[in-house]
Structure formats: C-alpha cells, structure tokens
Amino acid sequence: MTKQTTLVWFRQDLRIKDNPALSWAVEQGDIIPLYVFDEQSDDVEPLGGASKWWLHHSLQSLQKTLKDKLIIRKGKAADEILALAAAAGVDTIVWNRRYEPGELSRDKDIKQKLKEADYKVKSFNGSLLWEPMQILKNDGTPYKVYTPYYRNGCLGHASPRYPLQSPDDIKFSNHDVELGDVEDLALLPTLDWADDFDALWEPGEVGAAEKLSKFIENAAQQYRDQRNIPAVEGTSKLSPHLHFGEISPNQIWYSILDAFGGSDNDNIDTYLSELGWREFSYYLLYHWPKITTDNFNKKFDQFPWLNDSNALVAWQRGQTGIPIVDAGMRELWQTGYMHNRVRMVVGSFLVKNLLLDWRAGAKWFWDCLLDADLAANTASWQWVAGSGADAAPYFRIFNPILQGEKFDKQGEYVKTYCPELSKLPNKYIHKPWEAPDKVLSEADVVLGKDYPNPIVDLKESRQRALSAYDEVKG
C-alpha cells in the first residue's frame, strides 16, 4: 500500500487516545497535525474568556504530546487548511466532526473547497456516543423529550463504539512550514481573575485521565446522592476536559462500565444518564439550530422579561443577598466552574425571581465557565427558563433557601464563597435577613454593609413569575 501524507485538523478533540481521525491518519502513513484558532468564519461562536484560558493550556499539553510538531494557526480555517495542504504536499485532510450550526456550515464549505482542489477528505465522530442524525422516532422525526430519546432512542439503538487506544508510532511528515506558537494566539486574559485557575485545574489529556480515575475511585459509587451536595467532591468535574475533547464520552462511558458493571447500579446508571443529557443537548442543537437565540417554545416569545441592569450586575457579582445564589456566582468567578445543582438554583433565580431573560444568563456563563459548551449551555438555560424542550415547568421555581438548607445543611459551601457570613449559625446561614440583631452582631454581620440585603422578596417575586407565566402559557 502506498503511504500518504495526511493533514489532521484538531478541533475539540485535543487528545491522542480514542481520536478516530488521528488513528485513521496514522494508519495511512505520515501526518501533519494542525490547530486553527478561527474566530473569523461566519457564524462561528467566539470563545469566552475562561474557555480561552483552558484552550491555551490544553494546546500546550497537546503540543508536548505531539513532540512539538503541532502547527498553530490563527484565521479562517478554510484559508489556513488550503494553504498548509498546498505548502506541505498533503494528500488527504481529516477531522472529527462538530455539530454546532456555525461549525456545520463552515465544515461543509471547507469540505467542498478541498474536494474542488482534488484533496481527499474524511471526517469522523469523535465527540458523541450517538450522532444526532442516527436517533429518530419511528415516524422519522426527532425526539423532543429526554427520557424516550435516551432510553428508547439511544440505548435501544446500538451500544457506543468502544474507545480506540493511542496510535502506535506516530510518524510526522517532514516539511519546511513554520509551526507557529500557542502564545501567538493571545488566549490568556489580561485581567488577573484567572490567576487561581492554575491551582485548581490541569487542562490536557493527562489531567482528564487523572480526573476520571479520581472520580471512579472516590465518588462514583455515591454519585446519585452526593452529586447534589456542592460542598463535597461528589461529581467528576470532567466537563471542561470533555468539552475540549481531552477525553471522549466513549472513554468515560466504558471506563465507568468496566469498573462497576451495568445499569443495575443506580449510581452508575444516574451518571451515565448525565452523559445522555449532554448527548441530548447536542441533539437539540443539531435538529433545532436556532435555539441558541430563539425560544424552543414559541409561546415564550411573548414573555414579559424585565430589563434591570442593576439586578443583572448584582447576580453576576454574587451580591444578590441570597447566600446560595451568591456563593454559586462567586464560585463561578473564582474557579471557572459551578456545581451543577447550584447552576439550576442561580438560573432559576435569574429568570424567575428576577424575571431576566435566560439569554443574559447564558451569555455570562459562556464567558465565565471553563466548560462553556454551546449545546449544553443553551439547552440548560432554556430548560431552567421553561422555554426549552423537555423543560422544567415554569411553576417549578427553585426556592433558594430550601435548596440551601437541603443540600448545604451546614452551610459549608456558602461559608467557603461568602466568608463574611461564616460566623452565622446554620439556622440563618441561608436566610441572614431573618437573624435577630443580636445574632447578626455576634457574627460580625451588618446587612447592607458586610453583606447585601436581598435584592428581591422571594415570595413576592415567585408570585410575579407565576403571573408572568400565566400570560404566555395559553
């Protein structure tokens, strides 16, 4: 067989193990690995600040793994790929598919241009357990409800493919093309808000594998209950690694099953179903590409959102006067992450208690989350707003006091991120405005000075939300 030179275009698959495009290319002969930082192509969503920080370090990790052979470029992917293919004498270009609307449109355009230039092109599924076009109802239409989608559509379709091992003996093509450097992409923030990330996270394939091993060893067997407690390490925290493709869902899926067995284990079944939710998010975005900006449920087009910039800023800064909400928003700012239970609480508070548009929340999360994922972020915000597919009923409004008292009983989470409240007794840690003056004084808390008074009355705002919902439910 004649060996060929293949250009491997890395995207959100920054790993060597279980990388279908890379493995195929290595089998054909020499490779040229490429990463293009593309914010110029039409409809491609620019990364938020936290995501750029992660990408910088993830690319450095991949560069090291690829023995400093990774070519780094910045610009329109189509232009950069065609230029490199011509300069380096490439036969074939391969990549792992993406499913966001802008990426799909761009990839179709790139594939057409490459074929017109007589290059061979192949793409692979390297990021989903089940591709969106594979899972349809019996009548050929897409699912709109998660449970039948996952239980009947996905689990009833076919088992996910087993992950590939790292390719043996990667051979890199000799060329005279300048490599470029990760530093040239200027991804790191100029503000110092990301300084603490280094101590908390290890972007890259090695860090992802260590996170998964730690989860399997320490938390997976208690996942169903402990995942809701923000003060404990009850979740895998793999989402940033998964988003950037430093680990595949297939690797996670089979590592869990190989360690613990099948779905008769409630903890494992619950965790695998969370991977199913990620799949469903991509599924919705693929079949309804406008949901990033438009309500899935068109009735919400008439929803009477408020325009209160002061309330939005208070929410963003963790200064709402509602401790569990503020703790969550401060965790986000300090760590680039937020516990999933708390994400639902702060989301509900924004769209229901403050009546602020879910898009404002999605935009803030997009910029601040290390795991900011267009599909998951969009689907989650539409879910909590009540406007999405299989959404939480609008009348289900999270009570942040009860959520705090149930899942942060000792106030450990609140005390970590709202240290000004750390001396309050547990009885009042989630509702300091109810504490007697003597208790506040002994805790060195002056409401309105050391910690804000609530910016909204929870009971009244709940009723206001229900009244607003009555206007659109029809």
Explain this structure.
The chain has helices at residues 20-28, 49-65, 77-88, 101-116, 146-154, 197-200, 205-218, 223-226, 239-243, 249-260, 266-287, 309-316, 323-335, 340-353, 358-368, 374-385, 400-407, 412-417, 437-442, 458-473; strands spanning 4-10, 29-37, 71-74, 92-96, 120-124. The radius of gyration is 24 Å and the shape is globular. The chain is 46% helix and 6% strand. It has three domains: 4-126, Rossmann fold, CATH 3.40.50.620; 128-162 and 206-287, Serine Threonine Protein Phosphatase 5, Tetratricopeptide repeat (Alpha Horseshoe), CATH 1.25.40; 298-473, Orthogonal Bundle (DNA Cyclobutane Dipyrimidine Photolyase, subunit A, domain 3). It has 20 helices and five strands. The protein has a five-stranded parallel sheet, sandwiched between helices.
From the structure above, extract its key features.
single chain, 474 residues, Rossmann fold, DNA Cyclobutane Dipyrimidine Photolyase, subunit A, domain 3, 5-stranded parallel sheet, globular, chromophore, Crypto/Photolyase_N_sf
